[in-house]
């Protein structure tokens, strides 16, 4: 069924026709208290190439949330600081309107940056069982496998595996029915992760194990083929950091000091090797640092330079949706290059660009640079990335506040055993790393999954009495979904 539905989405000339269907199913299942199906509809919304479909889903969740009890009181302690950040951003938005902002900047920012977080509050609002989660993750895996089939046989094979391996930029076309190749890579990996953890616990040398290993190899090959190696490396680094933190947290003070000293000595002794490796990498990617494709590097330099904007903007931000974020770029169609097939805004939404965008960002992505893509990497060559955008829009104060909120959740969950906490930490780490080169923190796939897993892990941690209700037989996912503190 998932393959058939995925094929229907694949052949649709415009995914936006699915918007009313997604909204109807979300409200229908919510009315009938079928929470698991509401979550599954959200997963389907992620597999559409038009993010407007997902925005319809997330706004439907917001409508459901606003009809219930107080969101603030129903939110666990670690998530409540998000409300303070929201108040800070709203104040920043009101102030920037009087200077050089747009009335539409914050509403657009809510869609692109905030709306993926609505799923977290919906999960907290409604009761869930492990049976529900088993159903959701089982459907996620089936849907991801259908996507893998489509991506390989309908996108990769017609283009030619050899041609894709010889020209990595061809991999950007292997997206399944999603909007980008990295989105497909993240969905593939995190849909199979709970089964990998279960497999390592219950391994048996049989036909089922061979089939599962084959699927894993197939997924990894697809991730490599669609040029999502950055995501794969980020996942490996995140897992390594989490494993190290978990290992160190279980040691006494003397052991921690010893490990710290040993780590410093190893680092110092490897400086020569690291320096040679850095020089080698710098040489390979010189075009993106000092060469003709260094737009992202220049964006970093100008973002950190306090002389590029007024002091109050550097400290408190230019306001949400005003510079470099996807919301800001949508409004800056007067100075930034737009593809001919790009989504256009309604005529009643005027173009708006602040001084920084006009003076710096516009020259990093003008018509000449955008059209002269050549063989450059779209991610490395284009200037846009979440870290620069948020630093400019949030300012030093808001940026630090945001990192502290996410950092507290990450560190808390690294000490919690079980799949939900591990998967959430891995995705937080992966998103943080890739946000330096891409607009990861505004991609619906990465942020929906992050907030979904974050809500499940924190709900299991803080409210086990309302979550650990098993109303059905333990399935294959049950061992890895059980938390052991």
- Indicate the percent of residues in helices: 55-70%
Using DSSP, what is the number of strands? 0
Rough shape?
A: globular
Beta-strand proportion: under 5%
Q: What is the overall pLDDT average?
A: 82
Secondary-structure content class: mainly alpha
Secondary-structure element string: HHHHHHHHHHHHHHHHHHHHHHHHH
Query: What is the distance, rounded to the nearest whole angstrom, between the alpha carbons of the first and last residues?
Result: 38 Å
Which regions contain 5 or more consecutive residues with pLDDT less than 50? 468-485
Q: Gyration radius, to the nearest Å? A: 23 Å
Task: Characterize the structure shown.
The protein is mostly helical. It has helices spanning 2-11, 19-31, 35-46, 51-66, 81-97, 105-114, 118-125, 130-159, 161-166, 181-201, 207-225, 229-249, 253-269, 271-284, 295-304, 311-316, 326-331, 355-364, 367-371, 378-381, 386-414, 419-434, 444-462, 464-467, 478-481. Helix 3 packs antiparallel against helix 4 (51-66). The longest helix is centred in the N-terminal third of the chain and has 30 residues, at 130-159. It is globular and about 60 Å long. The model is unreliable at 468-485 (pLDDT under 50).
SSE blueprint:
Layout: H1 2-11, H2 19-31, H3 35-46, H4 51-66, H5 81-97, H6 105-114, H7 118-125, H8 130-159, H9 161-166, H10 181-201, H11 207-225, H12 229-249, H13 253-269, H14 271-284, H15 295-304, H16 311-316, H17 326-331, H18 355-364, H19 367-371, H20 378-381, H21 386-414, H22 419-434, H23 444-462, H24 464-467, H25 478-481
């Amino acid at each position: 069924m998932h393959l058939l539905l995925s094929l229907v989405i694949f052949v649709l000339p415009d995914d936006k026709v699915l918007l009313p269907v997604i909204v109807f199913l979300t409200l229908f299942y919510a009315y009938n208290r079928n929470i698991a199906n509401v979550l599954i509809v959200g997963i389907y919304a992620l597999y559409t190439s038009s993010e407007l479909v997902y925005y319809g889903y997330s706004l439907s969740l917001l409508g459901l949330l606003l009809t219930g009890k107080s969101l603030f009181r129903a939110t666990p302690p670690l998530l409540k600081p998000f409300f303070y950040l929201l108040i800070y951003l709203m104040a920043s938005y009101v102030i920037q309107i009087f200077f050089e902002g747009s009335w539409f900047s914050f509403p657009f920012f809510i869609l692109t940056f905030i709306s993926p977080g609505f799923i977290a509050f919906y999960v907290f609002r409604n009761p869930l069982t492990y049976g529900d989660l088993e159903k959701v993750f089982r459907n996620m895996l089936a849907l991801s496998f259908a996507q893998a089939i489509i991506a390989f046989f309908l996108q990769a094979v017609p283009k030619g595996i050899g041609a894709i391996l010889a020209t990595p930029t061809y991999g950007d076309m292997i997206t399944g029915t999603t909007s980008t190749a990295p989105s497909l890579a993240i969905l593939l990996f995190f849909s199979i992760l709970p089964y990998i953890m279960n497999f390592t616990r219950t391994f048996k040398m049989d036909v089922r194990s061979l089939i599962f290993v084959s699927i894993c190899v197939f997924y990894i090959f697809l991730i490599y083929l669609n040029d999502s190696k950055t995501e794969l490396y980020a996942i490996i680094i995140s897992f390594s950091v989490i494993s190290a933190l978990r290992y160190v947290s279980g040691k006494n003070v003397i052991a921690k000091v010893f490990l710290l000293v040993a780590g410093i000595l190893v680092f110092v002794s490897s400086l020569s090797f690291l320096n040679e490796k850095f020089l080698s990498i710098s040489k390979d990617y010189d075009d993106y640092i000092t060469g003709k494709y260094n737009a992202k590097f220049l964006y970093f330099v100008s973002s950190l330079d306090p002389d590029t904007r007024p002091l109050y903007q550097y400290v408190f931000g230019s306001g949400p949706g005003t510079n470099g974020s996807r919301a800001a770029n949508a409004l800056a169609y007067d100075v930034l290059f737009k593809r001919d097939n790009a989504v256009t805004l309604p005529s009643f939404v005027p173009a708006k660009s602040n001084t920084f965008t006009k003076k710096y960002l516009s020259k990093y992505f003008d018509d000449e640079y955008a059209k002269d893509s050549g063989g450059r990497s779209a991610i490395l060559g284009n200037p846009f990335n979440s870290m620069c955008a948020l630093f400019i829009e949030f300012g030093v104060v808001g940026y630090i506040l945001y990192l502290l909120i996410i950092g507290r959740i990450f560190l808390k969950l690294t000490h919690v055993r079980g799949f939900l906490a591990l998967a959430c930490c891995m995705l937080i780490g992966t998103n943080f790393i890739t946000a330096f080169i891409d607009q990861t923190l505004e991609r619906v796939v990465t942020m929906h999954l992050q907030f979904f897993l974050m809500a499940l892990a924190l709900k299991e941690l803080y409210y086990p009495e309302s979550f650990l209700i098993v109303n059905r037989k333990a399935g294959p996912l049950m061992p890895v979904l059980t938390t052991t503190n």
